[in-house]
Amino acid sequence: MDLLDTLTAKGLRRELPTREEALAVLATTDDELLDVVAAAGRVRRQWFGRRVKLNYLVNLKSGLCPEDCSYCSQRLGSKAEILKYTWLKPEQAAEAAAAGLAGGAKRVCLVASGRGPTDRDIDRVADTISAIKDAHENVEICACLGLLSDNQAERLRAAGADAYNHNLNTSESTYGDIATTHTYADRVDTVTKAHGAGLSACSGLIAGMGESDEDLVDVVFALRELGSDSVPVNFLIPFEGTPLAKEWNLTPQRCLRILAMVRFVCPDVEVRIAGGREVHLRSMQPLGLHIANSIFLGDYLTSEGQAGQADLDMIKDAGFEIEGADEMTLPRHRSDVATGGSGGSCGSGGGCGPCGETPAAEEEESRNELVRVRRRGAGTELAPNA
Ligand code: SF4
Fold first, then answer.
1. Residues with CB under 6 A from ligand 1
2. Which of 81, 125, 161, 294 could form a Cys-Cys staple with 272, CB 3.0–4.6 A?
């Protein structure tokens, strides 16, 4: 297929595809899917070999957010029955992080709900970073605390944070449809601040919110333009109690095409399969590893993932290996300017599309069973999943 030969050649040269080529990946048929995965896999192996980076989410503060991101179970007015708690103490967060690191994670993503941190919150996170790094010298820490004010990125960098996550989520032209309490420009500003302070920029997207193929291509081109070192690709988890609860339109095939498009546009960047991996890729998750080089281990912010051991088994069975703490994530030409990439997304993935059909009650029930609210780990008395 000429398209895939062209995209592979460009990916191996780190050359940007055209928008038309990126759109054409999303328009490929199911008959072409394995060829698409194989082509993206060649690019993935060129820059990342068969390594899979494991990242571990610690939700420092859960729920009760004043922002109205429509995909998020922690949003203003959310009726989702998620765990709600205020800031974990540094030692509690360090305990949760230790479980993820013992499970094989290389990066810990410290996430807090909210519009953005106060200066006091930055102090809390600095204490938490110290508590984690005192016990695990080589761990990478990514903070995800919302919109940053002046000098907060510099303070996080000084405290030992390696990266900062703030997702663009969707295209500039549709951002106003998913959130009204802040703007796309606010998000770009925070990613720019983080980058400017020497933090590795982690910024990604959520697919499945009703966006068009053009929106997906727009946001991925914008992420490349912003210089993201890591791009988490979330697939909307349609939480009951949120405005997007009925948006179930992603298929495993669609998710793989989206991942492949991201890989071709961002060939040498850490592409992470983030929230919604189990919910939407389901038994096709191992094919996703041929495209992405990074996943979250265990649970997400407000929902449960598959057992951590199942993540490890899947990686081994698919012929991949877990990236060690002493291995560089990014290719050398990128790692001179960054320490790695990734992070949690304050929010979660989900799905949608303009199908207009109401799923049968049975189908709806079985879909909802795919979404398991997190009841263990950080903020609970139960052991974390790692
Ligand atoms: S995504 Fe972040 S800012 Fe938006 S509602 Fe959720 S926790 Fe709040």
1. 65, 67, 69, 72, 74-75, 113, 146, 346-347
2. 294
Among the listed residues 51, 107, 272, 334, the single catalytic one is 272
Give me the domains of the chain, ranges plus CATH numbers.
2-370 (3.20.20.70)
Amino acid identity of residue 284, one-letter, is M
Q: What is the pLDDT of residues 56-114, one digit of tens each?
A: 999 999 999 999 999 999 999 999 999 999 999 999 999 999 999 999 999 999 999 99
Q: Which residues of 78-108 are buried (b: 16+ CB within 10 A; e: fewer)?
A: bebebbebebbebebbbbbbbbbbebbbbbb
For residue 350, report the distance from its CA to the centre of ligand 1, in Å: 14
Averaged pLDDT for residues 305-332: 94
Separation between Cα atoms, residue 59 and residue 301, nearest integer Å: 6
Neighbours of 185 (CB within 10 A): 10
Q: Which two tokens stand for residue 86?
A: 């205020």
Residue 202: helix, strand or coil by DSSP?
strand
E strands of 179-257, at which residues? 200-202, 205-207, 230-235
Q: How far is the CA of 78 from the centre of ligand 1 (A)?
A: 11
Q: Whose CA is nearest to atom 7 of ligand 1?
A: 113
Which atom belonging to ligand 1 lies closest to the Cα atom of 78? 5
Q: What is the 72 CA–ligand 1 centroid distance (Å)? A: 6
**pLDDT at site 336:** 58
Task: Look at the alpha carbons of 372, 377, 381, 382 in this order and tell me if their dihedral is positive or negative.
Answer: positive
- What is 309-368 written as a DSSP string? HHHHHHHHHTT-EEPPTTS-SS-HHHHTS-S------SS--B---TT-PPPPHHHHHHHH
Enclosing H/E stretch for 140 = strand 140-144
d(CA 150, CA 193): 8
